[in-house]
Structure formats: C-alpha cells, structure tokens
Amino acid sequence: MKKIIFSIFVCLTFISCQSEDDSDMASAPIIGEWGIDRYIVVRVDGSVQVLNFQEDACDRYLSMEFLPDGTTTQFMDQTGIESGCAQLSGSGYLHWTRENSNTYEFTYKEDDNSDEFIYLAFVDFPTNDTMVITYDGAPPFVPNNIVSSLEEHYFRK
Question: Which residue among 17, 79, 96, 105 sits deepest, i.e. has the most Cβ atoms within 10 Å of its Cβ?
C-alpha cells in the first residue's frame, strides 16, 4: 500500500492549473513548500494503517511546492541528495484549482500511459504550518475495494 501511495506522491512532478480567478489562486493557503508527514489509510475492512514518511531514510526529504499559478514541483531536498537518495523523475502531473475555501479539485495522471483522474478533496489547515488533505472515499487512483478513506498529512517547510 505504501508503494502505491508513494508512487502517487512521486508522480506529482509537473502540475499546471486549469483556469481560475488568479487572485483566488494567488491567495490559496495551499501555496508554499510542503513536506509529507504521514498518510492515514482506512481500509474497507475497517483496519487503520499509518504510513509515517518521516521514519523512512529518503521519504522524509521529499518536498512538494504548490505555486500560485496552479502548478507544482516535487523534489528531493539537498540533504536527501547528499544522503544518497534518488532524484525524482516522471511524466505524471497534478492540476489543482481552488473550488472554495477548503475544497480543491485535482486532476491527476501518473504517467503518459495512464488514465487521467479528476476528484475533489477537502483541504484543512489546522495551523499555518500543517495541512491535511482528506478524500471523500478512496481517491480514484487507489482501488476502492482496498481503501475506504485516505488522509494525507503535510508540514510547511
């Protein structure tokens, strides 16, 4: 499961935005550089799995930056590179638009040969330095016969 979810994070390499009011996009609190903290996965059988990315030798150095124009970059920071962690690459993308104060639309494609998925997610900012993305049910890129809900926890870098 961690492999599937990690591949989703890795594929968020190139992002461009669909049209949206530029002033609304420019003020979106999602804008900035974020590190992944953990995923909380609730399986259809009711079991809960916590995938702690801060415990992994390389995952803790992953960063994603959401830019005001709706694009994003995803990268391994310099400490991770110096520690021997692999640089990230891929042809996937994630487009994001802010639908309202806490709802974002994401358009995701893992690579050139995969299908494109469009989904809504609730994005909460418990503090200025933390972000939680919650999917209503399983995100479309995760088999819904395995996962019933998913929370992604991030911290501002």
Answer: 96
